[in-house]
Here is the input.
Amino acid sequence: MAVEIRGGAFEPWQELASFQQRMSAVSGKYGATAVFVGTMRDFNEGDAVRGMFLEHYPQMTEKHLEMIAKEAVQRWELLDVLIIHRVGEICPDDPIVLVAAWTAHRAAAFEAARYLIDELKSRAPFWKKESLPEGERWVTGNTPAD
Amino acid sequence: MAVEIRGGAFEPWQELASFQQRMSAVSGKYGATAVFVGTMRDFNEGDAVRGMFLEHYPQMTEKHLEMIAKEAVQRWELLDVLIIHRVGEICPDDPIVLVAAWTAHRAAAFEAARYLIDELKSRAPFWKKESLPEGERWVTGNTPAD
Amino acid sequence: MAITVKFFASLRERMGCDETVIDSQSAGTIAEVWQQVADDEVLPANLLMAVNMEYAEPGSVVRDGDEVAFFPPVTGGGNGC
Amino acid sequence: MAITVKFFASLRERMGCDETVIDSQSAGTIAEVWQQVADDEVLPANLLMAVNMEYAEPGSVVRDGDEVAFFPPVTGGGNGC
Here is the structure.
């Protein structure tokens, strides 16, 4: 299980490849991996977005992401879980968040990955400030889950 | 949109990295990527599994995977979709199937990825034969979705 | 004047071949194709069938030049996933 | 005899600072901490608060040495995702 906050750009697929290589203890045991990657779009609520600043509450973020990960491990008997979240200055097309769940069966993998990202968005102390051509604005609420 | 049948091993995360690099037309437009990877387990229904042979119906497989991909693109307004499925001799811990959906929002990405793998498992003409210590057996039915 | 008939997976093994060709004049529906290739054995209830790579029913009409296929329920994707 | 009070995001900007320290004797609950740092401004209804990095309520008790934080609704994850 790993939870990481990154101050710089990360490449989700490369992270998954190297994380999975270190998962040798459960090699052959997982049949299903579900992954979600949130990427920065260059538009939001109808406006062009040039860049973004992602603020967080150091330590509280890690603590709550770890709680969320542990809840998912217990509830869906996950074989492993990975959460990576970017902070700081972010450009369009940059990955912002990665969650991944490894399980024996596929329904649990999907449900766990969905749980990880939904809980992250509602409970982890991150805040986004968007840079628009007209100036900056704080994002005031996350898009509802559906 | 890409649908591929592979006769040899593939590395899902590397495939995603190189596929996404070619998606420059929708760069900055997708906020969500949901991925599912099915990996060969070394056990099934309580038995140890040493290896597997994956048979398919050439051309019919591609045709139906493309149908499934197009249905998902239309239904969830996907920005892109990728399906890769392995055939032939497969060893434990080898990736067998990869599905991925790129969308503006996360609910659609999860639903589309789930749809892709569920429909693939129920409609695409693939058959698995497992090698057990006691001999070989055809898998007679897929695990239900939940 | 011919119909190609394909078999897959456990059915292929049971039939002892993966493909055979029959005279199209002797078969108007898939059920009739089956009767001819399976020596009048009853069509197994869970067997799937396709005409020209589209899923079909026992009553589906077959025509000269068609490719008919019979196969057990499909089991693609990961094992157990 | 001190409580550290932190502010984040738009609230940090509005308060003009990210952290302040108050005397713990003057504050028994988070609501009282807020009154002291915000010059008796009414606690905004949607403001979130934490004590020692656990979510808390206006009535939650604070003790000497605690770290209290006030912040707007969280908005992590991708934009729009």
